[in-house]
Structure formats: C-alpha cells, structure tokens
Write a structure and sequence with these properties.
1 helix, 3-stranded antiparallel beta sheet, 19% strand, globular, alpha+beta
Length: 52
C-alpha cells in the first residue's frame, strides 16, 4: 500500500495503486507527488506523537 501527503491541504491518503491520484480531502490532483510506502507515513506520524 502506498501513501501521499497532499501539499495543498496536508491530508494523508493511501492507495494500493500509484497511478492517477486525487486528494480525498481537497480534491486536487496529486499524481505528480511521489508515493511512498504507507508504513513510512504512519511511522512519521508516530514519531510526531512521541515528540510531544
């Protein structure tokens, strides 16, 4: 599974495919943003919570 963070609204979205990708929060096309493995986004989120 892949994930992206929208540069326009900051929303995190996940998908099994890396093709055309529309942000589910703001509706913008984020296909040009590189996809990363979803566990990388979730791990970054866990680190942010540990820092507070």
């Amino acid at each position: 599974m892949y994930g992206k963070i929208c540069p326009y609204c900051g929303g995190k979205s996940f998908s099994a495919a890396r093709g055309i990708w529309e942000c589910p929060y703001c509706g913008r096309d984020i296909s040009h943003i590189p996809a990363v493995l979803a566990n990388q986004i979730l791990a970054d989120e866990d680190e942010d919570e540990d820092a507070t």
